[in-house]
Amino acid sequence: MAESKYITLVSSDGYEFVLLREAALISPTIKGMLRGPFVEAQTGRCNFPEISAHILEKVVDYFNYWYRNREKEDVPDMEIPVEMCLELLMAANYLNLDPQLR
Amino acid sequence: MPPCVGSRNTRPQRRIMGPQSALTDFLASHNISAHQIRLDADARRRQAQNNGDAQTDENTQDDEPATVDPPTDAPTPATSSRPATRARRSAAGTVTQRDEEARKKEQKVLEKIKASKKFQKRKRGLDSDDEDDLARALLQSSAPLPGQQENCASCGKRFTVTAYSRNGPEGGLLCGPCSKELEKGDAAKKKALPKRATGGSVGRRRQVQSNILDGTYALGAKSLMTLCIETLAKNIDLAEDLGDLPEPIIDKIARKLSKHRLLDSRTLTLFLQPAAEEVRIYDGAKLSSNDFIRIFQTVPGLKKLKIRNGIHFKDEVVDYLMSRHIDLEDLYLHGANLISEGKWKEYLQKKGGSLRSLRVYFTDKHFSDEVLALMPTTCPLLARLKVCHNQKVTGAGVASIAQVSTLRHLSLDLRNELHSDVYVDLITRLGVNLETLSLTRVPGADNTLLDALHSHCRQLSKLRITESEEMTDAGFVRLFRGWANPGLVWLDLQKCRQLDSAHPRENPDGLGLCSGGFRELMDHSGAKLRELNVHGCRHIEAQAFEEVFRAGAGEKVYEALEKLEISFCEEVTDFVVGSIFRSCPNLRELNVFGCMKVRDVRVPRGKILVGVPNAKGMVIEGDDDVDDVVMGDA
């Protein structure tokens, strides 16, 4: 079966986010889920029982922002709402969106 | 789901809720909560749906609307029409029981609105007698529901309400075009405010160049974690606790804060976790002695301590540290030159037994030979020692260091000039175990040191010898040729060159690292080298570079090399730079300051060439076809 260009991310409270596979692959965690011998690899659907919808939404925003800017230099920073900062930090850590990888 | 990196199994339910007592908490205390806002929005949406249902029910019940729909309520026609008609219809007598209940409920709400200040104010403005209608108007405008149809308060046109619909000057919502009209007025007002000066395109360009020189340049967006940490650092005054973030993240936040010089008594608290074993302070300039003492009070299990710019880390702090049951394994002190010689000795005598790593930077006069003389007896476990920017230590101190047989990592940057024999003695005694050796600014060190390295070192992976004026090319050849040490990973031989202002070009004795030494070193370590610095070794000939980085038959590829510094190597040409990019596929940065023969070289995409001697200074873009570049230059 040919891989779909899109994948679905599901939040803890059941919200689904559909986005480009290529954009989501910057997260080594998601990459591992989609490449390994897991259900996620076959269905293109990743469940995140620990990330709530409003955080996952921001993460998906980030994936798209990253994808849009991947070839550009001097990219304007994405706005992070202060109240979401710590939760987003935990999610980023979980998804391995680490500075070293940029 | 696969086991994910970064997850922690100790938590029973792994919901990412964020630390409860952090920013979230602070915001919660100011009634800001993303969760609450969501709940509210949901509630509103539900209510809107219920209302909608009730309305459609009603419409199906009475099919003669025209009879009771009077266009008389002129002052607020657009916003109040629907509920008004409903109330009047009910009054007209087609009343079911449910309508009756709904009407009562509405009446209650209207009473509440009538009592409100806003209502009173509006009433004065409008001179309307019909209080009920006005109250309904307010009821309507107070809860705009996205997705509903509404009449514009200004032009009366029907439009769909969105979350972005703006309020009109007299209450009610505005349609798109009218909102824009309003915005124009706002924009005029905003213009009056002084505009913050920005760098503009020049500032941005400068920032890019600055990033390149810092080595932080990269294509594409910043990582999400970096963005979060930056936001957090900007708003650190809101945070009261960082909660249970993983240790590496806390460290990154600490680094970011120090960059902005934001670490003070208050923010220090965020980084003092009682259960921690490690505290790293990257800028302690604003901390007082009491703050440093507080570290030992709050973190009783401290094992590793790193403090930069710890100016107030003085005798009394050391006294306190010695009085506690804290046995540091790793101590890194930078700029703590208020600790007296006596205290250093006392500390080593009392607490030296647990020390595995001691790094002391910028201590001027008080970290002396006598302190080092204690080390062989008081620090039986010491494996790492760094003494940098020190004005006091002499050959006697280095001789004491040579007695510390456990050392594996040694770094010296002393202001006093020592004779080469001191270093030879050091290597003879410690060389067997050394993994890292850094000797910065050793003008007196000569070939005997290189020979000692050759015959004693077998585990060295990082080597630095800089600014030697005595070593010769023959010495370097002897060192690298047939050296039983495995390939070095990190090598810095900058400014090992001949210095003679009268005859700068001539180098009859082959002083410094020249062609032969360079060939031998690449032959010996090239496969493993990650970073190489031959800055200022200006007698390496073009032919040597071309041979080492040659293309075509017998070509060598240096897979590991990531950073190469060949500034002020005069013979480097465009062709050499092209060859380097070709034979080092993983090279990230190449420095060519002062290589005046480099003129117009094309750089593969994503690689950085710094220091080209033209107005551009730095070149970072080019074609993906490296082959074309080399062909063109050849």
Characterize the structure shown.
The complex is a heterodimer of chains A (102) and B (634). Chain A has 102 residues and is of the alpha+beta class. Helices cover 42% and strands 13% of the residues of chain A. Chain A has a three-stranded mixed β-sheet. The mean pLDDT of chain A is 86. Chain B is an alpha/beta fold and 634 residues long. Chain B has a domain at 121-176. Helix content of chain B is 42%, strand content 10%. Chain B has 23 helices and 16 strands. The longest helix of chain B is centred in the first third of the chain and has 28 residues, at 34-61. The radius of gyration of chain B is 37 Å and the shape is elongated. Chains A and B meet through helix 2, helix 4 and helix 5 of A and helix 1, helix 8 and helix 9 of B.
Helix content percent band of chain B: 40-55%
The name of the CATH superfamily of chain A reads Potassium Channel Kv1.1, Chain A
Q: How large is the radius of gyration of chain A?
A: 13 Å
From the structure provided, what is the oligomeric state, counting identical versus distinct chains? Answer: heterodimer
Query: Can you tell me the overall shape of chain A?
Result: globular
What's the structural domain tally of chain A?
A: 1
How much strand of chain B?
A: 5-15%
Q: How many β-strands of chain B, per DSSP?
A: 16
Structural class of chain B: alpha/beta
CATH class of chain A: Alpha Beta
Lateral strand order in the biggest sheet of chain A? 2-1-3
Largest interface: A-B, 51 and 48 residues
Structural class of chain A: alpha+beta
Which architecture of chain A does the CATH hierarchy give at level 2? 2-Layer Sandwich
CATH third-tier fold name of chain A: Potassium Channel Kv1.1, Chain A
Give the N-to-C terminal Cα separation of chain A. 32 Å
Strand count, sense and closure of the main sheet of chain B?
A: 14 strands, mixed
Low-confidence stretches of chain A: none
How much of the sequence of chain A is in beta strands?
Answer: 5-15%
Keywords (chain A): Nucleus
InterPro entries (chain A): ELC1, SKP1-like, SKP1/BTB/POZ_sf, Skp1_comp_POZ
GO cellular component, one term (chain A): nucleus
Main location (chain A): nucleus
